[in-house]
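re: that chain from earlier
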Amino acid sequence: MDEEKSRSESAASGFGWLGPGLIMAASGIGASDVVSATVGGATYGLGLLWAVGMGAFFKFVLSEGLARWQLATGLTVLEGWSRDLPRWVMILFAAYLALWALAVSGALVSGCGLAIESITRGAVSRTWGGLGHAVVAYALIWSARTDIFSRVMKPLIVVMFVSIVVCAALALRDPAAVVRGFFIPIIPRGGAASVLSIIGGIGGSLTLLSYNYLLRDEGKVGACQLRAVRLDLAIAYLFTCIFGVSVILVADRVFFAAGVTITDREAVTRMANALAGLTGPVGFYVYSIGFWAAVIASLIGVWQAIPRVFADCHSLLFRMTPDQRKVATQVGSPVYRMALLGMALSSVPFAFLGKPLLVVMAFTILGSLFIPFLAATLLYLNNRIPFPAPLRKNGWTTNLVLVLILVLFLAVVVLETGGFLRT
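^ sequence. v structure.
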């Protein structure tokens, strides 16, 4: 009976080949990955490629820890925090979640505005283009229909990936430098913030929490699902890594190699125009449409997923019963829709700001602060409880990676603070 229920829930999700890992990855990529990788590549060339690979690997380890916790306990990680950590942790997380949701909504709407302004060559302004995308995304998610969500996300993921990878292949100028940049870690002077932004932005930050709810939607709730979950995550973060590397390759060719400083007004259009110089008008539209697909997929994915995190957090802080929490975290519940409305309305002022790159970079740095917190809590939770076979507590390699995440983020903060004090 349980197996039949699991199969029916999975079929009902309607995602097909679009596994929960790819949905999470597409939600996390969006404007944050594209802009942080673009700024990093434009400013430091190929020297920060290693940060893309490291960021994708870190997100794989963190997501696997989240999934393993849920498969072992049947609880989301928020339920684990509420049960096993002091109450003030959840209160602080709720405040951070509200601030992050405000920032991400503004960043994604700003990114959509940049994208549509580039595609239309300025015929549609970034302000009204961003607001128009926000209205469409809000209406789509408010309908609370998973089949529509999956039908929209599938082509967007294909378009964003294929177009940006094709652009990277056209822009490739030095394969040996790509290998060096990917495998030899360096932090250029003044580049600590870019490193933090890339590692924090690549593959998402707080959007990682959505994987818990996507697994439930797919019916993946038992220990026997571990292998399938790991494969799903490996595919998702390989996709993420290739995408991030591709963006840096294009930015390196267009800005860094040409000695051009990146600006808000030219961030997307100059990338597209440079590709047009290599390939003709096709290159312009391939990049512009790829960027648009990435940010609108992220806007839809985040606005579909994060209200469930809000609902889970709300239900735990107000000590609802398990049955009440189950209802509250469903797509379309009253708490869910209130959170969605709040995210949509908070995005409106950002559409009128003239610094979309600044908004997106601020969001990626803010989002990156969640990564060491998640690593620390997984070190505690996944070493604390007995896991049912074939699941196990963190091995020494997993613990080492989680500690490395904490050390790296601390080191980057110290380096950036020291550079700031010296100046």
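The CA atoms of residues 154 and 256 lie 33 Å apart.
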